[in-house]
Predict the structure.
Amino acid sequence: METLVNAFFNLGILRETAPYLWVGFKMSVLLTAVVVPLGIAGGLAVALLSRVRTKALRWLVVAYVDLFRAFPPLVLLMFIAFGLPFTGLDLPAFAAVALAFFLNTSSYYGEIFRAGIESIPRGQFEAARSTGLSGTQTMAYVIVPQATRNVIPDLISNTLEVVKLTSIASVVALPELLYAARQAQSITYNATPIIAAGVIYLVCLWPLVRLLSRFEHRQIVLH
Amino acid sequence: MGKFGETFLNWEVMAQYAPKIVEGFFVTLQLAAVIVVTGLAAGLAAALVRTLRLRLLNFFIVLAVDVLRALPPLVLIMILYFALPTVGVLLTGFVATWLALSAVLAAFAEEIFWAGILAVPRGQWEAARSTGLTFLQAMNHVVLPQAVRLTIPPLTNRTIAITKGTALGATVAVGEILYQAQTGYSFSYNPSPLTLGALAYLVLFIPVVWFGRWVETRFAWKR
């Protein structure tokens, strides 16, 4: 038992490495604050573009969504982080991560918004247009707000996945929480920092998991 | 195209590393297969145990599910692979990835199966039991078939998402596609192996993404 405590819950090590973890935590928060709004905005754009009249453009959007949903996010990230410098475009790690996340998450958010828009009955479009609203106004004031409300559980669920996904940025040496924990572990030869990182994720994300679990039950029970 | 092709589609480099990528392709397939089988089986088992409504047991199931949903899979893999050895438990990268991802899949699957079981109206239970079926028979022949049908779309999507997580194995030296691609890239200092790896993922996952889309429409609830 004592070896276990020393190996995983070593307070001395925790005190020593806490400043590193704190820096990493702040980076994870910053990353989340950048990639989540970008992904949501991109997803909304994808959903709206998949409804335009030009068939070629619609096809292009479907291809985009399928392509970036087929790549595991880590593959996309590595391709961009390691491949892009060869094109002469040497992005800083943070920008490379943000770009990879944008391509991946906008596809997922896009599918969610698309399902939301499809759930709105045609009558809503017709009623809105017949009151004199333009197509854009109809979308902005009538359809999108209702569509968004219908898919809130899916949006939260996807956002939770995106927040968890920010941990893969550690692979391309972006100093976020997991990266900081791994560094701290290799310096101290002790697993406490990595366990601490796990606990931090748990504490931050647990409320979201609880909320979702409640949503999901209601959703499937109501069907 | 000349310089771009030489960089990203260098035939010489590609020919050299193609066998490795093919090898990785089969490792990815194997890893994905064992994750799906164990994850779904464990998830279903946990959901069934939960129907017994033993309070203490259910508390632990819900706790485990919550923890596994809140932790990023990469953090879990890191804990299994880098933290456990400090207390003498050595796992290979393959086993660590397999355990971590099947645990995550089991957690999500348990929630989905459980919600599905709850969604079957009580009357179905009562009717089945009153025709003389035992608890197990009622579960097996009446409730589960209905519950599983409800759960297929969310389960398919979740399974696909977690299967793509096999790429995370690259971080703990599992010789799957991404690892082979990355190794090829660092030896040749040319991103063509990464291109090849990306193509391998497309070959593997584009059909899977399409299958997921088909399942969603096939089992869609008609309102």
About this structure: Residues 11-49 of chain A form the longest helix (39 residues).
